[in-house]
TrEMBL record:
Residue intervals of the Tetrapyrrole methylase domain: 2-191
Pathway recorded for this protein: Cofactor biosynthesis; adenosylcobalamin biosynthesis
One GO BP: methylation
Protein's name in the database: Precorrin-3B C17-methyltransferase
InterPro entries linked to this entry: 4pyrrol_Mease (IPR000878), 4pyrrol_Methylase_sf (IPR035996), 4pyrrole_Mease_sub1 (IPR014777), 4pyrrole_Mease_sub2 (IPR014776), Cbl_synth_CobJ/CibH_dom (IPR006363), Precorrin_MeTrfase (IPR051810)
Gene3D superfamilies, per the entry: Cobalt-precorrin-4 Transmethylase, Domain 1, Methyltransferase, Cobalt-precorrin-4 Transmethylase, Domain 2
Domain of life: Bacteria
Organism lineage string: Bacteria, Thermotogati, Thermotogota, Thermotogae, Thermotogales
MF GO annotations: precorrin-3B C17-methyltransferase activity
EC number of this enzyme: 2.1.1.131
Entry keywords, A to Z: Cobalamin biosynthesis, Methyltransferase, S-adenosyl-L-methionine, Transferase
Length: 236
């Protein structure tokens, strides 16, 4: 059986007990090179296959091949396997899979920020690797008009900087300028950093944002208190 393992934010303290158990007992570890390195302390003695970004299907196919040979395979993912990750690929190849959840970036970042997701929110990716940029802009505009809090994955890569700026402009055009925005980079890792800004400052902070950054854009009620972001739940 293949174990599809969410390793969370990349800090072993936030790896689930089940994830640690299967990583300890498996024969083979497969994953994106950065994720494999993040758990290397637990998998030093394992047969290991590291892949580049963009080789998601290759990883899954190798996992299936090795599993058919009778090996106990752990296919590792950053965050949670079902959120912008490998679940949808592996389940088109085999049903002999145990999916082991992990802490996603939205959970990890929200815990650091305080309580930004205490009301309705949407999760969006700005990567146009699988979704056309026009469709991303449409989804972002609709989310803004509905005043959802937005969690944004993959906000910028240097190869699509122009496209990312176009999407940011959609947000600027459809939300109040004083809307609170959190930029959380490398959450729970050694090189963690964070900024809380207003939407009007987004282009001033463009150089801070990269593929390791998760953005949370508040709704009209989101406010900052004690250095934390709070979106009211309206308990009475």
């Amino acid at each position: 059986m293949i174990k599809l393992v969410g390793i969370g934010p990349g800090n072993l303290q936030y790896l689930t007990l089940r994830a640690k158990e299967v990583l300890k007992n498996c024969d083979v570890v497969i994953g994106y090179e950065k994720y494999v390195e993040q758990i290397a302390e637990l998998t030093k003695s394992k047969e290991t296959y590291k892949y580049k970004m963009g080789q998601e299907e290759e990883r899954c196919k190798r996992a299936v091949e090795l599993s058919k040979e009778g090996k106990d395979v752990c296919l590792v993912c950053g965050g949670d396997p079902g959120i912008y990750s490998l679940s949808s690929i592996i389940l088109n190849l085999t049903d002999d899979v145990e999916i082991i959840p992990g802490i996603s970036a939205l959970n990890a970042c929200a815990s650091i920020l305080g309580s930004p997701l205490s009301n309705d929110f949407v999760v969006l990716s700005f990567s146009d690797y699988n979704v056309d940029i026009s469709e991303i802009k449409k989804r972002v505009e609709l989310a803004c008009k509905a005043d959802f809090v937005m969690v944004i994955y993959n906000p910028i890569s240097r190869v699509r900087l122009k496209k990312s700026k176009e999407i940011f402009q959609v947000i600027v055009d459809n939300k109040p300028s004083k809307t609170k925005v959190a930029l959380v980079k490398n959450c729970y890792r050694a090189d963690f950093s964070m900024r809380i800004i207003e939407l009007s400052q987004i282009f001033e902070n463009i150089d801070f944002i990269d593929m390791n950054t998760t953005m949370i854009v508040g709704n009209k009620y989101t406010y900052e208190n004690f250095g934390k972001l709070i979106t009211p739940r309206w308990y009475k």
